[in-house]
UniProtKB/TrEMBL annotation:
<protein>
    <submittedName>
        <fullName>DUF503 family protein</fullName>
    </submittedName>
</protein>
<dbReference type="Pfam" id="PF04456">
    <property type="entry name" value="DUF503"/>
</dbReference>
<dbReference type="InterPro" id="IPR036746">
    <property type="entry name" value="TT1725-like_sf"/>
</dbReference>
<dbReference type="InterPro" id="IPR007546">
    <property type="entry name" value="DUF503"/>
</dbReference>
Amino acid sequence: MIGSVDCEYIIYDAGSLKEKRAVLQRIMTRAKQKYNISISEIGFQDTWQRTKIGIVAITSSKMATERELNNVLKFIDSFPEIERTQSVFEWF
């Protein structure tokens, strides 16, 4: 089962694109290392304090995929410098 989630985030402390990308790079690298996922910035690349991240996981069942994606979201939400505003799940 393939599951994806598109999430919009606000990065409050980013004063430039360079600061935003540093925060995102650190969070996305750690998420890739900890979970079996693909993750990328898919929107708002030229906006300082806003971003859209796409996360994809593939497992043998919908329940396992959903668990993996929810664990990744909890992990990202644990970072104090970023706040999730919207999430959209899709299943293939």
